[in-house]
Amino acid sequence: MTYTFFDFLQLIGALGIFIFGMKIFSDGLQKVAGHRLRKILKGMTTSRLRGIFTGFGATTITQSSTTTTVMVVSFVNAGLITFIESTGVIMGANIGTTVTAWMVAIFGFQMQITPVAISLIGIFFPFLFFGREKLKNLAEAMIGFGILFIGLEFIKDAVPDIQENPEMFAFLDGFTEFGFLSIIIFVFVGAVLTLLTQSSSAATTITLVMLFQGWIDFPIAAAMILGENIGTTVTANIAALIGNVHAKRAARFHFIFNVFGVLWMLMLINPFLIGIDNIMQYFNPGIESILDDTIEARAAATLGLSLFHTTFNVLNVILLFAFVPAIIRIVERFQKDTDKSDMAFRLKYISAGLMSSAELSIAQAHKEVELFGKLIEKMHYSFSGLFFKKQKKQEKFLKKIAKREQITDNIELEISEYLTRISNSNLSDEATRKVRNIHSMINDLERIGDLYYQMSKTFEDMGKLGVELPEEAVNEVGAYLDVVLKGIKVMRKNMEGVNGTISLEEAVAIENEINAMRDKLKEEHYKRLEDNSYTSQAGVIFLDFVTRLEKIGDHILNVNEALAGRKLKVHSDLKVGR
Fold this sequence. Notes:
With 578 residues, this protein is mostly helical. It has 2 domains: 5-341, no CATH class; 358-564, Methane Monooxygenase Hydroxylase, Chain G, domain 1 (Up-down Bundle), CATH 1.20.58.220. The chain contains 22 helices and no strands. It is elongated.
C-alpha cells in the first residue's frame, strides 16, 4: 500500500479548502442577496406550497439546506412563523440542497474547471479593494466559487488510487457484498459522513468523488446520498435544543420527514436506480450503463447520482405533501408542549443563535429591540397605575416594575453579547452602522427602565414616609405621563418602520412638548412652595418625578435618532424645524 499518513493529511486539507470555498461562496451570495433573501423568507407564511418554493430559493442562495433549516428553526423559535408554516420551507430546502450536487457534478467532473476557477479568482480579486459594497460582495462570492472547485480538484487528486492501494479497496469492498444489507450499512455511512463534515453538500461531494474514482459503485453511492439526507437534519435538531417547543417540533419534523422518505425509497431502491440508468441512457445513447462499474461510465454516473438526488427529494415532497398533517400529529405527540421553561423570561428572536448572514442576524436583533420598546410601554402603564389605581393594586404594580427592570438589564446584556458575536464576522459598512445604532438603542431603553424603577421606589418611599401630593400635583404628573406616553408610541411606531423612511419631525415635536411641560410644571412647583400648598418634602418628590420623566423623553429621542441613523439633538432643548 502506497497511501501514507501524509497523503491522508493532504486529503483532509483538500476537504478543508473545499468547505472553506463553499463558506466564502455562501457568505458572498448571502451578502449580495441581502434584502432579497429577507423578502424571500418573509414570503414563507402564505401557504405550504409557497413555503416549498421559499425553502428551495433560500437554500439555493445559502448553498446549504442545513443553514436554511437552522434559520427556520430560529424563526419558529422567534415566533416569526408557526411550526406548521415551517414545514413547507423544510421540504423545499431538501430540494434546494440538490443544486450543489448538480453544480459539482457538471463543473467538477464533466469539464476541466480548475483553470476557469483560477481565472475567475484573478478576474474578481481586484474588486475586493473597490469601495462599492456590492462589487466587494460579488467578488467574495466568485472567489469562494473558484476556491471551491480548486478544493474539489485537490480532493480528486488526494483520494487513494485503487490500483496502487488494493488493500484499502478490498476493505471497503468487503462491506458491499451483503446485498440489501450493504445498502443499509452505507445509508448509515452517509449519515455519519454528514455529521463529521457538518455539511450535506460536502458529504455529497465526497460521495461523488468516491463514485468517480471507482471506490464505490452507483447503488452504494445512492445509499450514501439517502444517509446524507438524514444526517443533514441533525444540525437543526442540535440548534433546536435551546429553542422552545415549536422550534423543537420543526427540527423533529425535518428528521421524521426525511426518515420516511428514505424508508420508502429503500423499498424501491433497485427499480428506481434502473429507472435513473434508463433515463441517463435515453438522453446519452452513447454511454454505458451507470450501474456498470467501468471507467467510461463513472463521469456519467456522477450526473446520474445528482439526478437520483433531485428526483428522490422532489418525489418525496410530492408523495408526502398530503401526509404532512399526519406527520405533524406524530411530531406533536412525541414533542408535547409541557416544557415549563418556555414560560420563563428569555429573548424571543435571538435565543436560537446567529442566523446564516449578518443581515438576518441584525434583523433578528432589531426584532428584540421592538419587544424591548413594548416592555418599556408596559412599565409606563404600570407606573401610571401607581397614581390612578386603588391602593391594593399598587403593590402589584410595584412588583411588576421591579421584575421588568431586571428584565431590561438582562435584555440589554444579551442583545449586546449577540451584537458582539455579529461584529466578529466580516460586516459591511452599512451592517456596522446598524449594529452600533442597536447598541445605542438598547442602552437608552435600559436607562428608561431604570428611571421608571427609580420613580417607583420614590413612590414607595412616599407611602412609607406618609407623604401625599395634592390632587393638583397628581393631575399634573398624570398629564406629563400622557405626553411621555405619546413619545413612547411614536418611538415604537418608528421601530416597526425601521426598514422604511423614519421622520423625526413628530419625535422632535413631542420632545419639545415634554421640555415645555417640564418648564411649566417647575413653575407650578415653585408657586406651591411659595403658597405653602405642600411641604418641602412633597415638593422634592414632585420635582424628582418631573426631572426623571424629562430624562425619559431625552432617551426616547435618542432611540428615534438611532432608528433614523442620524443625530439631531445638540442641546437639551429642541425647537420644531431646527
